[in-house]
TrEMBL record:
EC number(s) on file: 2.7.7.7
UniProt-listed SUPFAM superfamilies: DNA/RNA polymerases, Lesion bypass DNA polymerase (Y-family), little finger domain
Start and end residues of each PI-PLC Y-box domain: 374-410
Family the UniProt entry places it in: Belongs to the DNA polymerase type-Y family.
Keywords attached to this entry: Cytoplasm, DNA damage, DNA repair, DNA replication, DNA-binding, DNA-directed DNA polymerase, Magnesium, Metal-binding, Mutator protein, Nucleotidyltransferase, Transferase
PANTHER family reported in the protein's UniProt record: DNA POLYMERASE KAPPA (PTHR11076:SF33), DNA REPAIR POLYMERASE UMUC / TRANSFERASE FAMILY MEMBER (PTHR11076)
Entry binding sites for Mg(2+): D11, D105
Organism: Nocardioides baculatus
Bias-annotated ranges (Basic and acidic residues): 417-433
Alphabetized HAMAP family for the sequence: DNApol_IV
Protein name: DNA polymerase IV
Site residues, Substrate discrimination: F16
Functional note: Poorly processive, error-prone DNA polymerase involved in untargeted mutagenesis. Copies undamaged DNA at stalled replication forks, which arise in vivo from mismatched or misaligned primer ends. These misaligned primers can be extended by PolIV. Exhibits no 3'-5' exonuclease (proofreading) activity. May be involved in translesional synthesis, in conjunction with the beta clamp from PolIII.
Amino acid sequence: MRATASILHLDLDAFFAAVEQRDKPSLRGKPVIVGGTGGRGVVSTASYEARKYGVGSAMSGREARARCPHAAFLSGRFHAYRETSRAVMQVLRDLSPLVEPLSLDEAFVDLAAADLPDLEVATVTEVGAELRRRVHEVTGGLTATVGIASSKFLAKVASELDKPDGMTVVPPGTELDLLRPMKVTVIPGVGPATNERLRRAGIHTIAELEQVSEDELVRLLGQAQGHGLWQLARAQDLRPVVAEREAKSISVESTYDVDLNDRKLMEGILTRQAKEVGTRMRKNGFSGRTVSIKVRLHDFTTLSRSSTLSSPTDDGATIARIARALLGDLDTTGGVRLLGVGVSGLADWVQEDLFGDEPEEDEVEVVLPEPPRRTWPPGVDVVHDEMGPGWVWGSGSGVVTVRFETAETPPGPVRSFRMDDPALHRWEPPPEE
């Protein structure tokens, strides 16, 4: 913990849903749910209007519809989210060279590395207010909540206190006063299982946790977690803001619209993914020792298997052979909806092959089963030759309904077309360089 409140945590409010409301004027002020559009879908983000009905992230689409049937359920437009995130991260880097992104919508900023006259509470408060104003400006109206404190832990906690569109600054010396009344679940890593163990021990708040000795917590939760909770209950957190986090693994995975049942097809997909992993490793100067696969079955059960080599590799063919062998140990007869390959235990060197080059494997042709005809998912951007840009309101029975509006227009008209109307085109962003 620092002597100054010099670590800032910024969290964009209901980010995916907020971007959709920004770009779709007719949805502003209304419940919007990103994700959960298919029979198996889960909610990625819910707007605050939808959260009033109890809709939250990771909830099944079925439950979200039961709670808020009048919400707009959208499939998501990740190009728009990435573009908006880049603009925000650039604002943060303009403030300080030490920015640690955690995801598209949140990051830590080290204000001690910024060019500020001092780190007094009044100064950092002004900086936080100006930062929120700049985010609102560069994103076209999105809001962010900011927490500023003497550690990462406290800054993250502070950013949860005044959502949405707020800011909390924790003056140095008041950290424990803020923490003590809070439930232990505000501490990172205290999930349902850990919370239940603490509850059985009569520990509900951080004030109660603070009274427990370190030895007792270690006996209750294990060495690493017990020691960590003992420190955080006393606001002890010395983690620095790290601008470039070291990669721990490199992986590729894909989800499929139709369950995969053909073992040869799965092996072909793993082979293709493994070669992509190998290419990315070589491009970034990495090799790795542990090859793993991730398999999500038709019933959402997720399985993983791994194998560790005696020396690191960046060879896609080697990774592919191991991945296929790992798949052979799994029962996939019920169907598979996700496959992925990853390599961890990264190093910056490769053991030379002592047995000479192995022959190149033949390229495996991968032909995925045809998905249900759903070429117009709700929320995607489209362009009509006469009406101009808009987005898909809904589709079915050979008809697609479009709302013609953009972020710069008022709510626009709704029109319906045949799905095969040659004047209607799905808009795609230009490829990234």
